[in-house]
């Protein structure tokens, strides 16, 4: 695992949604937006799983995952790669359930990612071209 730099933590906290890429054991890719990505500690991030059955199916077959946190305003962000663990119960799942219950959104499980690589993408001068 690698340590998440403060800049990556800040980006993850500020930019929504993040995009999670997975692949099945036979390499069929899937990308899903996640509005719940959060930093857990210096080496882990997590997201709540609410409506992405293909993401879960892929992670059960192949725990390798990539996460893109990209700001369309600055064209900067970060890319994470790591190994996912699906959690069906516990403190993290309860925390996500409490966060999304007021919005009437059902959290089925949490996905905890042990970060193995972080690539920072510095903002482009002038940000997005309009």
SSE diagram, text form:
Layout: H1 6-14, E1 18-23, E2 29-34, E3 38-41, E4 44-49, H2 53-61, E5 64-71, E6 76-87, H3 91-100, E7 109-121
What is the gist of this entry?
This protein is of the alpha+beta class and 130 residues long. The chain has helices at residues 6-14, 53-61, 91-100; strands at 18-23, 29-34, 38-41, 44-49, 64-71, 76-87, 109-121. The protein has a single domain (6-121), classed as Electron Transport, Fmn-binding Protein, Chain A (Pnp Oxidase, Chain A, Roll), CATH 2.30.110.
Characterize the structure shown.
With 130 residues, this protein is an alpha+beta fold. It has a single domain, classed as Roll (Pnp Oxidase, Chain A). 22% of the residues lie in helices and 42% in strands. The chain has a seven-stranded antiparallel beta sheet with strand order 2-1-5-6-7-4-3. The relative contact order is 0.24.
Indicate the CATH class: Mainly Beta
- How many E strands? 7
Estimate the strand proportion. 35-45%
Termini separation comes to: 38 Å
Point out poorly predicted stretches: none
- Strand arrangement in the largest pleated sheet: 2-1-5-6-7-4-3
| Secondary structure: helix percent | 10-25%
Could you tell me the CATH topology label.
Pnp Oxidase, Chain A
Q: Helices and strands, in N-to-C order?
A: HEEEEHEEHE
Morphology call: globular
Overall domain count: 1
